[in-house]
Amino acid sequence: MFRIEVDNINGKTELLYVHGDRSILTELEQHNVLINHSCRQGHCGSCILQLLSGDVIHQDSLMPLSQGEILACRATPVRDIKIGPRD
Ligand code: FES
Question: What's the whole-number mean pLDDT along residues 12-24?
């Protein structure tokens, strides 16, 4: 079980506890933390968040990402993480 610390994403700051078997986007939705998204396949970039600490695994994606950016639809936590809105 991993902890996702949500740091001021659309006004929400809270702790989620997840198994790490679903995307961060899906986990956020399950906990009513709503973020922008569209394709859910790593193409549009609308779900980009900032990884503030911890590690994630990214499935394949075509989007170029800056340092610390993750695609919520393609990323799964591999340990406790802290995420916030894109800089
Ligand atoms: S929803 Fe399109 S890249 Fe994540």
Answer: 95
Determine the average pLDDT of the residues in 49-73: 93
Indicate if ligand 1 lies below 6 Å from the C-beta of 26.
no
Domain ranges of the chain: 2-85
Question: Region 8-30: what's the mean pLDDT?
Answer: 95
- Tell me the two tokens of residue 76: 């799964």
Regarding the beta carbon of 38 and ligand 1, being less than 6 Å apart is answered yes
Q: Considering only the top CATH level, what class is 2-85?
A: alpha beta
**Whether the predicted model's global pTM rises above the 0.85 cut:** yes
Tell me the CA–centroid distance for residue 34 and ligand 1, in Å: 13
